[in-house]
Amino acid sequence: MVSTKSADVGKTIQICWWWIQELMALKKSQKSLKKWTKQKWRTSSGKKSSETGEVYAPSATIKKLKSTKAGRAKLAAANKKKRAATKKGKQHAKHGLHKGNKR
């Protein structure tokens, strides 16, 4: 009879090995995309962008921007550009919120 501990360890090792192989098989751009999709994206109010006209950004970015006066101004400017682009019927707005970030 196999002990439960050794079965659990074996399963854990198998899962870790699969995860390592998956990461090794991905190109740098694919790893970046995978990381990007795992982030929690939202608007600053938490409501839908279609209702508020706000930009979507990762939660960590929004939290960081809201913590300073300059950040709040940058977020407000980005939302203003997003609303103007939406009003013109554009799907994407060049709001500059991600400008300067390595992408």
Your description of this structure?
By secondary structure, the protein is mainly alpha-helical. The chain has a domain at 40-96. It contains 5 helices and 2 strands. A two-stranded antiparallel ribbon has the order 1-2. Helix 4 (59-66) packs across helix 5 (69-87). The longest helix has 22 residues, at 4-25.
Count of DSSP E strands?
A: 2
- Oligomeric state of the chains in view: single chain
Largest sheet: 2 strands, antiparallel
Query: How much of the polypeptide forms β-strand, as a percent range?
Result: under 5%
Order of strands in the sheet with most strands: 1-2
Order of helices and strands: HHEHEHH
SSE class: mainly alpha
Radius of gyration: 21 Å
**Tally of helical runs:** 5
Mean of the pLDDT scores? 81
Summarize this entry quickly.
The chain is mainly α and 103 residues long. The protein is built from 5 helices and 2 strands.
